[in-house]
Amino acid sequence: MATRSTDPVTLAPHSGDVVVLGGPASADPAVLGGKAARLADMIAAGLPVPPAFCLTTGLFTRYLADTGLAGKIEGAEGGAVRELILATRLPAPLADEVLAAYERLGRPRVAVRSSALKEDSAARSFAGQHDTVLDVAGDAALLDAVRQCWASLWSARATAYRDGDAAEAMAVVVQEMVHCDVSGVLFTVDPVSARPHRVVVEACRGLGEGLVSGRVSSDLFVVDDRSLEVAEERVRYKVAKWAPLAPGKIGMTKVDAAERSVPCLGHAQLAELARLGLRVREHYGSEQDVEWGLRDGAFHLFQTRPITTRPLPDDAAARGGALSPYVAQQPDAVQQGTLWSRMDIGEIFVGLMTPLGLSFARYYQENVHTDCAAALGVRDTGDADLHMGYYQGHIYLNISYSAYLLGQALPTRDQRHFTKRFVGEDVEGGALADYENPFGKFPGGMEDVLSTAHWLRHTAAEALRMKSRSGAMVTSRLYEFDRARRLDLTRMSRRELHAELTRNLGWFHDMHVGYMPYYINAFGFYGILTELCRMWLGAEGENLQNRIKTDMSSLRTVESAKEIWAVAQAAKDRPRVLKIINDEPLENVAAALRADDEGAAFWERHMEPFLRANGTRGHQEMELTHPRWIDDPSYIFQMIRRYASDGFSADDILKRSSGYHDDSREMLKKLSLPQRKVIETVISLYALCSELRETTRMSMITSIWLVRNVVYEVGRRLVEAGVLHSLDEVAHLDFADVRAYLAGGAGELESFPRERIDEARRLHEYRKRLPEPPLTFIGEHDITQAVRPAPGGARLSGLGASPGRVIGRARIVEDLVWQADEFEAGEILVTRYTDASWTPLFAIAGGVVTDVGSMLSHSSIVSREFHVPSVVNTKYATQRINTGDMVMVDGDTGVVEVVEG
C-alpha cells in the first residue's frame, strides 16, 4: 500500500485531545508520550514518516474518568486493570473524536501503537513492552485496538519492566499502515562494537515484526558514514517473511523463490537509507536506533529511539569471546598449542548455539562429559574445564587434552590415531606432521600399568554387556517418554518442577554416559577400516571404506525416513485425511486431524506410534530452543505431503543406485584370505556398533527433550510474570539461572534480570553476523582478521563423503520446516550442515552438498546409506550456488561444479 501525503490533517476544534502528528501542536512527551512525540518531531523535520494522529494522555485520562475506571483501578492488580479496560467501551463523545480523526486521515488500514510517557526515552526504551496492533481497518476494530494498547500499560511484561514504578498515562498513535516490501532496523553506530564510522543496517523481506521477533532471516550491511559506501555485506538465504495473509491478519508466509538469494537492498538504496539515518542522528544529536520500511521504492521511517545499550569495547573478549575457546586462561604453551575441533563431535553440538544452548552445553561439560570418558575405560578423566571449549557461540572439543587422556587406552596409545580423525583441511599441509601436544604424553611407569589394566577390564566387561545395555536403554526410553506424555508440568509447584528437572538431569547423565561407548567404538572401527584399506590396498584402497556395503540401511536414523513413508502411504489411502494435511496451514494440521473422526483414527493408529518411536528428534538437539517433532510436527506433515505426492515406495528409494559401480568386493578379493577375514571382521564390528549407536541415540536425545520440557515450562511462567516478552526469549536465558531459580526462593525478576537477558541477546545477534569459524584450528583464532570473501567461479572443492557422480538441479534449503514441501525428488540438496532430522529429505535427494562437514558427519553417513553422492565441507556452497542451478556433484573427487546457471 502506498503511503499518503504527510501534510497535517486539520481536525475539528473540539478534538484537543486528538493531535495530528507534525501539525502546529507541540511535540510534548507529557501529552503525546515518548513514541508519538518523536514521530511528531520527525514529521516536522521533514523526515518520511507515514501520516498519523495521536490520542493524547488527556484523552486516556478522560476515558478513565468518564467510565468510572479511575476509582476502580487504584490499588488493583495489573491483570485485573487490564481486563477492566478491555471490557469497557469508549463513551460515545470520546469514540466520536477518535473516529473523526480516522475519517480525516482517509480511513486507511492503520497500525495502532502504544506511546507511554517514558517510552523511547534516553533512559529506558520500553521496546516491546506495550502492544502494537497491525493492519487495523474499520471503526469497531480501531476502537478495540486503542483499548488494547491502553490495557497493555498493565500487562505483566510492562509491570515487570517498570520494576515497582507506578503506571502512568498512555497515549496511542494511529498511523497509516505501510505493507512494506522490505523492512528493518538501522543503527547509526554499531551497537555491539566500538568501530567508528559504521552505520549498521539489518533488512528482511516483508514487515519488520519478523526481524524483531527473530523468526526470519535477514541481510546485514555496514555502511561507512563518511563515504556512504558499503563496507560489509552478508546476504542470507531468506525463506519466510511477515506479511498480510488476509485483511487484518498478519503472519508468516514464504518469500518468493526469486527473491530469496537476492540482497534486500542495493548499494544505492543503502546509501539513501544511511543518509536518512544520519539526518535523524544529526537532528537529535545522539546515536539512534531507527525502524524503517521500503514500499514501491520509497523509504518510510516508523520509529526512532536513542541507543540505550552500551557498545562492547573493541577488544578480543568483547568480540563475542576470547580468541581461544578455553573457559579460563591457560599457560601460554597450552593456550597457543591446543588443537581444537568441532568435527565429528555429534550433530547435537553442530552449528551456532544460543546463550541457553551454550550454557546447557557447559552444564554437560561440568557434570556429564568426564563420566562419558570414564565409560570408555579411561581411568583418569582429568579436569572437566579442559575437555571442551567455546568460540563465537560454537562448541569445540579439546583434541589435545582428549588425546592426552586417551593415551591410557591401548588403541589410542599413539595419539595420532585419535588426533588425525578430528583434523580438517584448516590445519593440514604439514601443520599436524610437526605438531607436539602441549599436554605431552600420559605418564608412564606404574600409572601406565594401572591405566592399561583398568582399560582391559572395562573393555572386556563392555563387550559382554553392550547388547543387553542397549536393550535396557531402549526400554528405559519408552518408559520415560510415556511418563513425560502423562505429566502436566503446568500444575506443578516450583519445588515439584525442581524435583522433576533434577530427575530428568539424572537420566540425561545416564543416557549420555551409556551412549558414548557405542559412538566412540563405531568411530574407532571406521578408523581401523580406513587404515587397513590404505595399508593393504594402497592407492586402490583410497576411500574404499565408504564404498563397502555395510548393510546398515536398518539404522534407526534411516529407518525414520521409511516410517514417515509408511505414515504418508496411510494418509494417501485416506483421501479425507490427506486433504486435511494438504489444505490446512501447517500449524493447524494436528488440531484439524484430531477434530475429525477419520483424522483422529489416523492420528491414533499411525501418528502416535511414529511419534513414540521418533518424536524426540529435532534439529541440533543439544540446542534446547529447537522444538522436537512431537512439539511441532510441521516438518512431518511437510514430508507426508512430499512423500504422498511423489509416487515412490520406501523400497524404491532404499534400493536406488547413485550410478557408480561398487567394486569393493572385487577389491577385497585381491587380499590374502587372512587380510580379507580381518577386514570383514572389522566391517561387522563397525556395523554392530553403528546399529547400537543409532538405537541408543534415541535414548540420549529423548533425555534432552525431557530437560527442554521443564525449561520451557519455566519460560512459560516467566512470560506470564512479564519477565520475558515471549517464549522466543527463552533462548537468551542461562541454564544455570533456570536451575538456581527452581532450587531457590528468589523471585522471577531477581533470578532473571532484564539487563542480563538483553545483553545475552545482543551478544548472540552479534555472533550471528560473523562468518562460520573453522572446523579445526590450533591455538587462538581471530575471526575478525580471518574473514575472506568466498572465491569466485562456479567450481568448489570439498570432501568427497559418499561416492558417485550425479547432475541435477540445486535447491538451497535454509529452513527445514518451511522448505520441505518445496524439495523435489532428485534435486541436489545444498545447505550449511545437516543432522538426524534431515534424514527424510536424503531419501529423495539426488545428491547432497554442505558448507560444513566431515567424513563422519551426519550428511556423510546418511548419504552413504542412501547411496546418494555427497560432497561436504565446501565452505561456500550456499553462497556460490543458487536454487535452480544445474550442478554436478562428484562424491569421489569432492568436486561440485555449476554446469548451467
TrEMBL record:
Keyword annotations from UniProtKB, A to Z: Pyruvate
Residues in PEP-utilising enzyme mobile domain copies: 823-894
Keyword DNA repair included in the entry's annotation: no
One Pfam family cited in the UniProt record for this chain: PEP-utilizers
GO function term, MF aspect, one: kinase activity
InterPro entries, sorted: ATP_grasp_subdomain_1, PEP-util_enz_mobile_dom, PEP_Utilizing_Enz, Phosphohistidine_dom_sf, PPDK_AMP/ATP-bd
Cross-referenced SUPFAM superfamilies: Glutathione synthetase ATP-binding domain-like, Phosphohistidine domain
Domain Pyruvate phosphate dikinase AMP/ATP-binding: 31-310
Name this protein carries in UniProt: Phosphoenolpyruvate-utilizing enzyme
Lineage: Bacteria, Bacillati, Actinomycetota, Actinomycetes, Kitasatosporales
